[in-house]
C-alpha cells in the first residue's frame, strides 16, 4: 500500500487508453504526476500524452506485471475491465481504485439494480432473464413495452431492444443474442439527469451540480449544467450518489444516470464506475473538474471544490461531426476538447464542445 | 509549407522540454494534437506528456532532422534556442514560429532595445558596452546607478549587476564576465506590469488584460490580473504589443514586460518570444489561456478570446516551496499547476498556484 497522499512525481496507472483516459492523464499531468496507460492497442489517445504505455490483453499476466511495477496507484477509464485483470493487479500489490467490487456491480445489470435497491436507491422494476420462457414470464409481470438488455456489456444503446408486446419475445430474445439478460419496466420519465460524485480515501464525498442530458439513439448528445432542479431533487440525487459511493466503499469518481419522473421522483438508470460523459461540462464549469477530482481521489489528496463557476452546455461531436472544429474554433464562448482519435467512423465519440453560457458569481 | 489551419491529429513540435513546453503540450493535447519535444536532455517535463521526444544538442543535425520529419509545425518554449538550430530546421522545410528574426532580436539586449525604439516602443536609455572604457563612457552619459547586463543570455536576474558609481566600473565589468554587455539607465518605476499578446497567421492580434507583477531577487513571485490600470495605460500597452508583433511579423504568443512610471508612462523592459510566466494566470482566468492561444496561433487556427472571466493571483513556488502543494491542495480557491521536475533545488521554478479571487461577469 503506497503512502497517501501520493506526492507529485508519482505514477497514476490508467486501465484503458480512450478519451476518458486521455483527459484523466492531462489532469494528472497538471498536478505533476506521470501516467501509465494499459490498453490492448498501442498508441492510444491516452498513451500519446503519457510517459508509459503498456500494450497487452486483459489476461496478459506479464504485461500486467510490467504495468503494476510502474504504477503507484491504478484507476480505470473503462467499466468493462475484466474483474480478473483487477484481481491480478491487486495480487501483484497494486492499489486499484475503484476496485473489483465496484466493477463487478457495474458490469452486470442485475447485480447493479439489486445493489441499488438494497441500498435504498430506487430503479425501474426488473427481472433477470435466462431463457425465452423467463422472458415471457418477465413480460407477464412487468408488462409491455419493456426494455430487454444483455446483463453484461453494451453501452451507448448497444445490446438492448424494446419488446413492445408478448409476440415480440422471440425476436427480442434473438436480438440480444440469446444471452443472459435483464428485462426492465418502462420508465415514464420527464427528463434525464445525472449526478457526478466523488469519494476520497478519507471517506469524504462531494457531488457536482446535476446535469440535464439529452440522448439520441442511445448516445449522449447534450448535457446542460447546472440543471435547474428543486432543492428536493438535488438533495435526493446527492443522497443517491452518497449511498452508491459508501455502499461500494468507493474511491474515485462515479457517474449516476437518473430518470426524473412526473412529480420529481428519481430512479437510477445506471451507474458508471469512472469519470462520465455527462460530467465533461465540469471542465469549463467548475474550478476542480471531474478528471482532476478522480486523480485527487485515487492519489489520496483532499477532494477539490465541486461548485459551479459557470453554466455550460456540453455537446458531443460524433463521427464526422468532428469536422465542425473549424467553425467551433471561431466561437469565443466555446471550449473545444478533441480526442485525437484517428478514424471518425459514424457515431464514434470524437470530441466535445463546452459552450460557456455565463459565469456564476 | 503545411496547409493551415492544421487539423487535429497533426503534430506540434516544441523546442525545449521545460514547464512551458509541458503546458504547451497539454494545451495542444486538448485540441487533439500530438506533440514532439526537442531537448538536450531525455525525459523532460514536456516529453513525459508528449507522443515523441527527440534528444539532441542544438547543433545535432541528425536529431534535428528526425524532429523536423515528425512535426507539422514547430514552436519554442525557450528564447535562447540558437538561431542556427532554427535555420537548420527551416532549411529542412520545417515551419518554425516564432521564427529566427524574433529570436535574434530577443536574444540580444542591444538588438532588442534598438528594435523597440525603432518601432516606437520606449525603453530606458542604454548604451552597448564592449570593453571597460566603453563602460566608463556609458556611465558618463547615462549616470549612475545603472544596470549592467550581458548582451546575450541571462534570465531571472542572472548575468546582471548594478553599477552604483564610476568607481565600480571595473568590478561590474568583471561581474558580467567581461563579455559584450549593455548598460541600462535606471528606471524609476511605480510598478511592473506585463502584457501577453498573440498574433495569428492571418495577422489578427489579441492582447490579454495586463498583469501586475512582483519580482524578488530578479525572479517573478506574484502576478495579479487583470491589473487595475487606466484606459490610457491599457491602450498604450496594447499598442506596444501590437507594434512588437507586427514589427517582427510574429506568429505566436509574446510576453512584454513593462515599467509603469509616475504619471502612467510605460517603458518596455524586455520581450520574451514565447508564453510567459506572467501569463500563467490566464490558465484559470480566461476562456482561452496563453498556452492554447500559442497553439492556435502556430497551428493557423483563429485566435481565441483573451478576455478575463476571473480575477487571479498567480504565485510561483520556487525550489522546496513546492512542498506547499499539501496545504494548497486543501484550499478550494487554488488551482495548482505542478511541473513534475525532479530536483527542487533552491530558486528553481517547480510549480505555480493560481488563486481565483472572484469570477467576472
How would you portray this structure in words?
The structure is a homodimer of 361-residue chains. Chain A is of the alpha+beta class. In chain A, 28% of the residues lie in helices and 29% in strands. Chain A contains eleven helices and 17 strands. In chain A, strands 9, 10, 11, 12, 13, 14, 15, 16 and 17 form a nine-stranded antiparallel sheet that branches. In chain A, strand 9 (189-199) and strand 10 form a beta hairpin. In chain A, helix 1 (19-30) crosses helix 10 (290-298) and helix 3 (83-91) runs antiparallel to helix 4 (100-107). The longest helix of chain A has 17 residues, at 231-247. At the A-B interface, helix 1, strand 16 and strand 17 of A face helix 1, strand 16 and strand 17 of B.
List keywords for this structure.
homodimer; 361 residues; alpha+beta; 9-stranded antiparallel β-sheet; 4-stranded parallel β-sheet
Percent of residues in helices of chain A comes to 25-40%
How would you sum up the global shape of chain A? globular
Structural class of chain A: alpha+beta
Q: How many DSSP-defined strands of chain A?
A: 17
SSE order of chain A in H/E notation?
Answer: EHEEHEHHHEHEEHEEEEEHEEHHEHEE
**Sheet having the most strands of chain A:** 9 strands, antiparallel
Distance between the termini of chain A: 41 Å
Q: What gyration radius of chain A follows from the Cα positions, in whole Å?
A: 20 Å
Oligomer: homodimer
Beta strand % of chain A: 25-35%
Q: Which chain pair shows the most residues in contact?
A: A-B, 49 and 49 residues
Mean pLDDT of chain A: 96
* Poorly predicted spans of chain A: none
Number of helices of chain A: 11
